[in-house]
Structures are given as C-alpha cells and as structure tokens.
Amino acid sequence: MTITNDDNDRHQNQCEKMEVNENLRSQYTIGSNDFILVDEVGERPKKNVKEKFHELSTCLNKNSKTVFTYKTITKRLPILQWWPTYTTEDGIGDLLAGITVGLTLIPQSMAYSALAGLPPQQGLYGSFVGSLMYVFLGTCKEVPMGPTAIVSLMTYNTLHGLGPVYGTLLCFLTGVIQLIMGVVGLGFLIDFISGPVNSGFTSAVAILIVASQIKDLIGVKAAGTTLLDMIISISKDISHYQLGDTWLGIICIVVILLLRRMALCQIGPKDVNEQTTFHRVMNRSMWLIGTFRNSIVVIVSSYVGYLYITSTGHDVTSNDLPPIPFKVVGKIPSGLPEFDLPKFSITRDNGTTIGFFEIVSSIGSGVIVLPIIALIETISICKTFADGKPVDATQELLATGLCNIGNSFFHAYPGSGSFSRSAVNAASGVRTPMEGLYAGILVIFALLFCTPYLYYIPKAALAAIIVAAVIFMVEVRVVRPIYRSKKSDLIPGLATFFACLVLPLEIGVLIGIGLNLVSILYHAARPKLLIEVHKTRDGINYLMVTPDRCLVFPSVDYVRNLVMKQSLKRELPVVIDCSHIYGADFTAAKVIEMLTQDFSKRGQALFFYNLKPSVVAVFEGVQPKGFITYYHRHDLDRLFQRWKQQRQQIENASTE
C-alpha cells in the first residue's frame, strides 16, 4: 500500500481491506512531496504509430537545427573562439613555443618510430598533419600532437613487425574508433581506467620501453612484446655486442640528464622581481639549452657520425652499413610523403591478396585498446593544464580521432598528445593551439631540406633520448599515497603493473580494467545496510533498515537475506528506509514480493518508508501482497496500531 496523493483511488481499496475508517484512510492518503521525486507518476496516454513517428521527426528536425547553430559550430571548431581575440603577443608566444616544441619533436618522432618498429621517417610523417589539424580542432593549447612513447610501444606490440603499411592502416582505424567514440558519447569508458591502474600501466610501459632500447644501446638485434621475451632475445644476440654503441649511448644519456637538470636550475634570488638582468638572461639561457637537449645531442652525435663515415670513405648512397663502431639511422627518403589512402588490402609477392578483415585479424585486439590508451594520454594532459576549467572530453575525442585519420593519409602511425612535449610547451609560454602550426612547419622543413643529414644520426643517440624521457614515467611516488588512502587500490595497480610486464600490454590493461569492474560490481552487490532499533511514540520497538544505494539484481538477494536474518533474530517489525533507493529492476521487484510474502505469513510487519514513485511503479508491477509504503513518520504510528489490531484479531480468532 502506497500512501500518496497520486494513487489515492488505488490505495483506498487496500485501506478498506485493512478496515480503516474514512478519516484515518484520508490521513494515510496524504503524502509529503518533500520526500518524493515526482517522476513517472500516473499513466501516460498511449500513442499510435503515426503520433510516434511525428514525434520522432520533430525531435530529429529540432536536433538538426541545433547542430548548425553558431554555438555548436564554435564548440566543434574551437579556433573560432580564440582567433577573433588573437593578438601580436599571442603570435610571438606561440611562435617561440612552436619552434621549441618542433626542435624537440623532430628527434623524438624519429626515436619513437624506431621504438614502434617502423622506419624513422614514419615518425616524422605523423608529426606535422596532426599538429596542423589540432590548431583548428583542439581545446588545450599545451597538447602537441604526434608520436609518443606509450603509443609507440603499443604500436610495436600490436603490429608485431608487420610493417609500415599495417602501421598506416592502424593509424586510420585508431582515428575512426576515436571519432566514433566521440560522436556516440563513449568517452565515459575511459573512466573505467582508475588512477592506480593507469599508474601501474604507465610504470610497466616505462620499464618495457627501457628494455626495448637496450638492443640499440649495445648494438644487437632483438625483439619481443614482453619483458621476458626481450631479455631472451637480447641474450641470444649478445655475442654481437658493440662497445661503440654502448659508450655513445651512455654518454648521450648522461648529457641529456645533465642538460635536463640545467633547465631546472636558477641562479640569483628566487623572486623574479629581485633578479638582475644578468640573472634573467642566464636563467633563460640555461633553460633554453636544457630544453633543446635532445636536439643538441642529435646534432653533436650526428656530427661525430659524419666525421667517422667521411673518414672511411663510405658511399652513403649505397645500402651497405658504414664500417664505424656504432650504427646509424641510414638513408631516409627526402621530401614530403604522398597523399594516399590507407591500404585496405595487400597483395603479396606470390600474387595472393590479403583482405581487410584478415589484416584486422592479424593486428588483433590492439586495434581496440590502442585508441583508448591514446585518448587517456591526451585527456590526462588536458586535465593537468586545465587550471580548474572543465575539459571538453568529447571534443578531444573528435580532435584526436580526426588528427589520426589525417595522419593516416600521409603514411603515419598512431599518435596522441605527449606529456614531455606538453611540459615544454607550457614552459615556453604557449598562448593558443596555434603553436602546432609552427611546430608542423618546422617538421615539414626538416623533411624537405634536412633528410640527407639525418643519415648520420646514431641509433644509440635516439635510444638515449627515449630512455632519458621514460625513466621518469615510473610512478613510484604514488604507491605511498595510495597505501595511506586505500590499501585495496594497490591490488589493481600492482596487478596491472606485473601483468603488463609478463603479458602483452593490451591483456595487462584489460586485467586492470577487469579488476576495477570486479571491485565496482562487488560494491554494487554488497550495499551497506544501517540496522537500528527504533521505538515509536506508543512504545513499539521496530528495526529500521537503511540501504545506502539502489536495489538491483546483484544486491537484492543479499539485502533480503540480511533483512530476514535480523527480523527472525530479533522478532521485531521491520521498516526499510528507501530514501537512498533511486532505482530498481524486475529481479528486485520479485525479491521484494517474496519478502513481503514471508513477512505476511509470519504475521510480522514490513513497511517501506520514503520510496520513490518510479520505484513504487517497478515493485507494484509484480503485484506484491502486503506491500505498504508511507511518507510521513507520524503515519508509522497509525500503521503499527492497525497492525497490532489485526494481530489481536487473528489471535482471538485462533483461540476461539
């Protein structure tokens, strides 16, 4: 029985069955709207097919009009928001930031491309189109689109050495999946990757990246997708160890770390206003030198390689390796890549054709996991530099997806926003996403005029750039705060960390997500119940049971068993406080029906307090016997009085 104004007629019949007088019944049917969410109350008029079709067409027409409003267009093309107020100072700041990021991007993109198991030029191909597109589509000025360490390693584990054609198709599919996620609003899936899982994944990836670069640091051939595979592969070719690569790699790592430290150092007073001109000039100079550390190392090591190669008289146009103590990048095609669609079918040397679905099958589950990881990286950067402002995750999904689709037309592999370059961007004084234009132009300049000089870059120098960048990604410092906050959160984090080391990365991530889902489902299936003994004004003791969340099929049996156990143990009437129950399903309704039947058979009172009308409708759909709700606390006294009278009548009838 529901005691509300909205269902007066229906519940009057139930009150008559309880033989309640007219005045008392009118008091029962007066509910308090202070505790009711008025939704889904009353029967809605039925509509025929024609009316439903007209309603749908009206809704589509209204939505189509809102798509092309100025507000929506500026939201999906963020450049229209900041371009009208773009100033000369903004242009200067973006120019300096773009040049700084571009000089960092060129060596990094080549190094990350090698990490992905692809030619160095493919990293450069993915460094200018996405940067140019993000100028128009991006919402975060600090995000520099292009190859990153995490996505490159994921690409390597996904492709398994299949080659550049597969890498380009993977870039296209990554962009399409990201674009679809943005259009249909699936960005919430990223929320299922918790902080501990993300930290465990990032730390494992950092260790795997370092392990994957050992082969270039010691001059051997190796492959593998897990830590154990890499170690075994390196040990098999350790006899071809080259001392020149090792010494050059170690020196480059030390120099990069020292220059990185230099960028963080300051001389003079900490307060900028108290510094002299000499102090400011020196601090700015040290910061610039430290920021350009990757470019400095590449230029100097390339010059060393040039001196070695020219001294031997080696022909750089040949396909033979130069006879020097360390390995170099070798020939890189000059000029910009041709505009071309990704290959959806590949013809083998024997004349057979590999279809699209066979290509996707060979790529595996990484085609689904990689886009999500790339989005996490980009959105994490946006949140880091948001300064308390809301992040438009949907727009970032659309922007990242379109950038990857655009990159795939120029033979690139997947990319996203880079943490290391975003820090450089912010420190360089970036004003708007326009910096991506200047960074992209710098990459285009390098492809047009600098490719002959890229031949001399030592592979050990590129490996040193990667190692020096990722060793700081191992998030050891988060372990103690997680332990102090909630120890159980370490379980998915550590499980993800070790799973990513010993298993393929996509499986390791899925294990971490799975553990998070298990934790969520466990808490959903085991709601907290507050059980207290209360007393009415007439001195009747009863159990007040208060669940802290909705009743759905995983949890309702658990709640029923606890209610039954406590009611049998204490032999008291039970009141279930439903103030926190905002939803229920059919399974919950059936269990409530059984619960009311059990109480009715025992002659034990069971009442539901403050149950939302939408939930009442769900429960009443199964027509439970003895289902009584109330909304005023003083109504409970009357309900108990009537219950006592009924019990007394039953006892008298049984004695007679």
From TrEMBL:
Domain of life: Eukaryota
TM ranges: 165-190, 246-264, 285-309, 354-376, 437-455, 461-479, 491-522
Localisation: Membrane
Entry-linked Pfam families: STAS (PF01740), Sulfate_transp (PF00916)
Start and end residues of each STAS domain: 551-620
Main location: membrane
Any single GO CC term annotated in Swiss-Prot or TrEMBL for this entry: membrane
The keyword Membrane is annotated on this UniProt entry: yes
Entry membrane topology: Multi-pass membrane protein
Keywords attached to this entry: Membrane, Transmembrane, Transmembrane helix
InterPro entries: SLC26A/SulP_dom, SLC26A/SulP_fam, STAS_dom, STAS_dom_sf
Any GO BP: transmembrane transport
Protein name: STAS domain-containing protein
Taxonomic classification: Eukaryota, Metazoa, Ecdysozoa, Arthropoda, Hexapoda
